[in-house]
Design goal:
Elements: H1 2-9, E1 12-21, E2 23-25, E3 31-34, E4 40-45, E5 53-63, E6 70-76, E7 86-90, E8 96-103, E9 109-113, E10 119-130, H2 133-148, H3 152-166, H4 168-175, H5 188-195, H6 200-211, E11 219-225, H7 230-241, E12 248-254, H8 260-272, E13 276-280, H9 286-295, E14 302-305, E15 311-312, H10 316-326, E16 332-340, E17 346-350, H11 357-360, E18 370-373, H12 374-379, H13 391-402, E19 406-417, H14 431-447, E20 452-456, E21 463-467, E22 475-480, H15 492-506, E23 512-516, H16 523-533, E24 538-543, E25 546-548, H17 553-561, E26 566-574, E27 580-582, E28 585-588, E29 591-594, E30 614-616, E31 623-627, H18 628-634, H19 645-656, E32 660-671, H20 681-690, H21 692-695
Helix pairs in contact: 2-3, 3-4, 7-8, 13-14
């Protein structure tokens, strides 16, 4: 009865701020200032209770600093403000968010998180109106018409066909993807207009540059198609035809589409351009088989993958060809990308690191645009149907095992369409994708001869590939006092004793010893002397203010330190108030900075950066593990270099030797010391100048991400120019 009565009542709620965290009101009225990470505002309700079920939500918010594409509304149903009850709130270009959301049936409290980091915003009225399923359906049908470019009559006909073929329940699942409002990223959109938009003149100049390349490899673009809506299919093909670089072929496989317009469109384009090849399957083979059939049409040297509803940037193939001209030995290239809405609004740029094996074992970070040498693609055997849903992930894992040279092209060359049912909207849209990805990682372990498990992290689609520690090697935990006189509170001896007691009582890995690094002339000399006394195959350098939280912290670090070509392994470090101390190190102006410092311990990070294994140029000196072999190859710590530069110097020497440094979130410890002090200006400048060719820019951190401090937020003012010319 309640479900029948509610649509008739249409109760309206006015939601007002009652208290806040990491945010304060600047003036009497509606101007707010977020002072820390993840600012949140608890709301009260004009009706004494909170809205529930289907709700038409209205929020007026104008963000003036540090904007991002989304905020969040979180509901507490008795178990706290958990992620499962959260609703993502897109930013509207006019500051007026109007959208339909589905709240839980019994809401005890509501919390609004307007932005993700520090910044200023103007918050106006917030209201919610409970509505019924019929109004929701009509609203979704109208949005579907606009997104697909259909008349209401055609849209209704398409909906009826979908319901007849797949059932009424599937129809609703299809339609609910159009929930939401306009997406607008006020930091990214102006940057796109100024720096990443193309005019006729700029495209003409780009075409001339493409023709002047000394080497002009041929790209085979592979695109499987199945019942693609006409609008998206045309846009995808048009984005290839519009490429400034003209030495390409588009190999399309129609996977037995039932929609009649697909064959007509493909035949029209094929007749208009001989570079477009089409093959049609007589039975539906799903994406892996369709991709393999499209690959059979290839005659190029390199293969690029394009989804049937996505778009290439006009300069995509030119940038790939340019990279191949710079290094002809490259086997695999991948680029940055962004999302594009059904309203053709670009948002949420995905800026990726340089080649990062540990990242790839956490999720398919290569994404789009990926480009493989054709010989490599054929050698690994193409795409495997048994990994449907994650066939591109399985393919990438196998290719990277054999590729000799992998390169990141740090430009946004691909626009990933966020349409209903797409993983771009939510990984939850396709459960089988997660299962296939997990099996692909398990298969990788078997191919590499490793034992271990693949564990899903707390967000779907992200994993930990936890290899079993080989044997029981001796680990030497070297405890040192990293503070200068007068910097740490209390007695240095007391801190050292407390650290040793905590390590011995908490650590579950038994084959270890604890070595005290006695202070001599410098920290570097003290550490080198301690290494000489240590018996371990693996060395862990630990600041005296470190306290373990997870008992298996040594095992978690060993899993990575035992891998071939791994240098330093860093742990997840927290301040005493359970905020992030270390989840990786980025170099800004050639100097080391900790990323997302001060965010809550539960912070997921930028595409999982805080919560998955990830590669960086360096990790925190306060807790890092290195094999004795890797340590010896560097010659140890530079005794003429002050701390902490001597430790970061060691990390960079390993990178220079072809090793990679890894951050793992599975080893968690408290770091109760102070924030890193980078010493005097002369020492800092000397260090920065020594390593400028390696650290400027930091290839594991996107060129347009904030550096002051490094938070992984998009910053349109970020520059690739070398700041060291004027001093760090």
């Amino acid at each position: 009865m309640r479900r029948l009565v509610r649509p008739l009542l249409r109760r309206r709620f006015v939601l007002s701020p009652v208290r806040s965290s990491n945010v304060e009101m600047q003036t009497q009225g509606c101007v707010w200032r977020a002072t820390g990470a993840l600012p949140s505002i608890d709301l009260s309700s004009s009706r004494g209770r909170f809205p529930s079920g289907w709700v038409r939500l209205a929020i007026d918010i104008e963000v003036t600093e540090c904007d991002s594409a989304y905020g969040w509304m979180r509901a507490d149903c008795g178990g706290g403000f958990c992620h499962d009850s959260a609703v993502r709130i897109p930013r509207a270009s006019d500051g007026k968010v109007r959208m339909i959301v589905r709240l839980p049936d019994a809401v005890l409290a509501l919390r609004y998180e307007p932005i993700k980091g520090a910044g200023t915003f103007v918050l106006g009225p917030i209201s919610a109106q409970e509505i019924g399923w019929l109004e929701v359906f009509v609203s979704q049908m109208l949005r579907y018409c606009r997104g697909e470019g259909l008349s209401p009559v055609k849209a209704l006909r398409a909906a009826l066909v979908h319901a007849r073929v797949h059932g009424v329940g599937a129809l609703w699942g299809w339609m609910k993807g159009y929930l939401g409002g306009e997406v607008a990223d006020k930091a990214y959109a102006p940057w796109v207009r100024q720096h990443d938009s193309w005019t006729a003149d700029s495209l003409r100049s780009l075409g001339e540059a493409a023709r002047d390349l000394s080497s002009r490899p041929k790209f085979s673009i592979i695109m499987p198609v199945h019942d693609t809506p006409e609008r998206w299919l045309r846009k995808a093909i048009d984005s290839v035809v519009a490429q400034a670089y003209d030495n390409w072929e588009l190999c399309i496989c129609d996977d037995n589409s039932r929609a009649p317009h697909v064959a007509v469109i493909l035949d029209t384009y094929r007749r208009a351009d001989p570079r477009i090849k089409v093959v049609t399957r007589r039975t539906n083979g799903h994406i892996a088989r369709a991709t393999n059939d499209a690959m059979a049409l290839m005659s190029g040297e390199f293969m690029c993958l394009l989804d049937h509803d996505d778009e290439l940037a006009p300069n995509a193939l030119f940038e790939l060809a340019k990279a191949l001209n710079e290094d002809a030995t490259v086997d695999l290239l991948y680029s940055d990308e962004d999302l594009i809405s059904i309203d053709d609004v670009r948002y949420e740029p995905i800026l990726k690191p340089a080649w990062s094996p540990e990242n790839l074992e956490s999720y398919m970070y290569l994404g789009h645009l990926t480009c493989y040498r054709v010989d490599l693609a054929r050698r690994v055997g193409g795409f495997r149907p048994e990994y449907s849903g994650a066939q591109d992930y399985d393919f990438a894992l196998r290719c990277t095992e054999q590729a000799q040279n992998i390169r990141h092209v740090a430009k946004i060359l691909y626009h990933w369409r966020a349409v209903p049912g797409s993983v771009a909207v939510s990984i939850d849209e396709k459960d089988y994708v997660v299962l296939s990805a997990k099996r692909a990682l398990e298969a990788r372990l078997a191919r590499c001869g490793d034992s271990g498990t693949v564990v899903e992290r707390r967000i779907r689609g992200w994993f930990e590939t936890a290899r079993t520690v080989t044997g029981t090697p001796m680990v030497s935990v070297i405890v040192f006092d990293g503070h200068r006189p007068g910097e740490a509170a209390g007695s240095s001896g007391d801190s050292m004793a407390a650290a040793i007691d905590a390590i011995r009582s908490k650590t579950t890995y038994r084959t270890h010893e604890v070595i005290v690094a006695y202070m001599v002339r410098s920290v570097a000399e003290s550490l080198n002397e301690a290494v000489a006394r240590a018996r371990g195959e693996y060395l862990v350098f630990v600041d005296s203010t470190i306290r373990p939280i997870t008992g298996d912290w040594l095992e978690s670090m060993l899993r990575y330190a035992q891998r071939p070509r791994v240098g330093a392994v860093g742990a997840k470090l927290l301040f005493g108030d359970d905020t992030l101390r270390h989840v990786g190190v980025v170099f800004s102006s050639g100097l080391p900075r900790h990323v997302r410092q001060g965010y809550p311990a539960s912070d997921w990070g930028y595409w999982g950066s805080s919560s998955i294994a990830r590669n960086y140029l360096a990790v925190s000196p306060a807790c890092m593990m290195i094999s004795r072999e890797a340590f010896a190859a560097t010659g140890g710590f530079d005794q003429e270099m002050a701390s902490p530069f001597c430790q970061f110097d060691l990390c960079l020497k390993m990178v220079e030797q072809g090793r990679r440094n890894v951050y793992t979130p599975s080893a968690v410890l408290y770091h109760l010391g102070y924030q890193d002090a980078l010493g005097d200006r002369d020492s800092a400048r000397s260090f920065a100048l020594k390593w400028r060719s390696l650290t400027v820019p930091d290839r594991f951190y996107g060129a347009h991400l904030a550096l002051h401090p490094p938070t992984f937020e998009f910053d349109p003012t970020a520059s690739l120019t070398d700041p060291l010319a004027h001093g760090p």
